[in-house]
Amino acid sequence: MISMGCAKNLVDSEVLMKQLEYSDFHVVFEPGSLRDIDTVIINTCGFIHDAKQESVDMILHYAEAKKEGRISRLYVMGCLTQRYRNELRNEIPEADGIFGVNELQTILREIGGDYRHHLLGERKLTTPPHVAYLKIAEGCDRSCSFCAIPSIRGRHRSKPMEEIMAESTYLAERGVKELLVISQDTTYYGVDLYHKQRLADLLRELTTIRGIEWIRLHYTYPQAFPMEVLELMRDHSNICNYLDIPIQHISDHILKSMKRGMTGDTIRRLLDKVRNTIPGVTLRTTLITGYPGETESDFDELCRFVEKTRFDRLGVFTYSHEEGTGASKLNDSVPRKIKRIRQSALMQLQEQISLQKNQELVGKKIKVILDREEHDHWIGRSETDSLEVDQEVLVRKPARGGQSGTFATIRITGASHFDLMGEISG
Questions:
Q1: Do 371 and 399 lie in a common domain?
Q2: What are φ and ψ of residue 190, in 5° steps?
Q3: Which residues of the chain have pLDDT under 50?
């Protein structure tokens, strides 16, 4: 099983792997070698150009392996195949089956397995065993002009709260201590099922699950943000003071063209509210450079905003002109080279901000979860860092003590732009 793209895709892969195991298949996640591998399943990403190309390259690699007789069967699924199913069937005849994003039962049947309804909420985790992604909804009702997800994944569909609680309890009983709450639009949770936003109600229930020590929120859309979530975060120690709010831009005319439903000032007021309600909160965001019509003035405003706001964590993407999106009708006016230059400039700004924030932690003690062991160090994360997307804490391994999945108090002894160094204290 090979899973590409986002964490939401990864959850789909984990669900499929669990079903396959119950049908007596031995499943290997992202095999380093094809020795003893009969069948390869690739769960693809089709979000932006670079991700699509990576998925195509992966399919071609294993198509070649099949032609050479190194594997017997090749199946392809996911977002890329949802968008380009017919084209892929014509171009890659080596694929034994090509499936979209909501065809789990069909895939199982094609491979020779049986769908087990009693496995609802059960998965074969590919993350460290003490941390798991928790997907609370599928699809998206937003109309952001740059995004193809609604056309790929469909309308927003919240998972019933009782199913989420059953899944979370199942994960906790198997040693998971950190839940990473994800969906395409986390703040919209519940609107379709319960006719109102119910993210706060869901979080309140999740805090009661024995064994879950960290609950972390990702993909919280800023428009119509449910403010009661902030008070919950402040008042519950097992909800991380960490908020991922993808804002994409700050220029009013770019935000309007993006159909984000907010102005720059609305975004600024939201971020001020978050920081005033939760002192010391960690703010993560993502930005897009080179959107159609982005001028030097727009980009300068974005740079000034980043300098002033001082996000704790920040990612920057270059705009990708995707067919079927609202923005595809616009002229892709910013040259690719300029997009890259602007992306690099923003990341250089963030490097300095991150370094300064990290240096302020030297000499202090923080709580860290130890994710894995590497040579003479533990690799861990603090409450301010999510799995894979944020920085890590490199902890000097003591003569005794320390175990993957446990929490430790770490004294920070050094800092770089995007990592901390430390040692176990006490």
A1: yes
A2: 95, -20
A3: none
